[in-house]
Amino acid sequence: MGDARLLDPAALDKKRSPRGRVSIVVPTAWLREGARLDVAVPAKLRCDLCDGGGCDACERSGAYRVEETKVAVTLPRVTDDVLALRVTNPFAEREPTMLVVRIAAGNEASAGVTYVGPNHDVEPRIGNLPPLPKVPFWLPYVFLAVFAAILGLATRHC
Length: 158
Ligand SMILES: [Zn+2]
Fold this sequence. Notes:
Layout: H1 9-14, E1 19-27, H2 28-33, E2 35-41, E3 44-47, E4 63-65, E5 69-75, E6 82-88, E7 98-106, E8 113-118, H3 139-157
Parallel strand pairs: 1-7
Antiparallel strand pairs: 1-3, 2-5, 2-8, 3-4, 6-7
The protein binds zinc ion.
The site of zinc ion has 8 residues, from loops.
C-alpha cells in the first residue's frame, strides 16, 4: 500500500483545489438557444471556495491573480434563468485549475461577454410539426391560367 493519507476522503476534502469564479449576465435567448461565448476574465479573480473571504486555496487573499484573458464558454440549451458552468484548466497549467462561471439571464450581455456563435453541440429542436406538403412548381401557373380564362370569359360577356 502507498500513502494511506492520499486515499482518505476527509483529507481530500480539506485539500480543495483552487477555484475561481466569474459571474456574467447573458440575454435570455442565448440560454434558450445555446451559444458559444468568449468571457473576459479579470486579473483579480474571486475565489469560489470562500466567496472572497479568504481560505487555504487562495492563501487567504479571497482572489487569484491571473493574467487577463478570455475563456471560451459553451452555453447549453436550458430553460433555467440561472446556472453555473465549470471550466477546467482555463489557464493551462496555472492556478486556479477550475473556473466557475455563474450565469444569469438578463436583457443584455454584461461587459466582457462576447457572442461567438450558436452552440452546434445541440441539435435544434423543431418539434413535431408535420412536414410541409410538396407543391409542384407548376401548380400556381395552372391557377393563374384558370383565373385568366375565367376573367377572359367574364369580360367577353360584358
Ligand atoms: Zn478562497
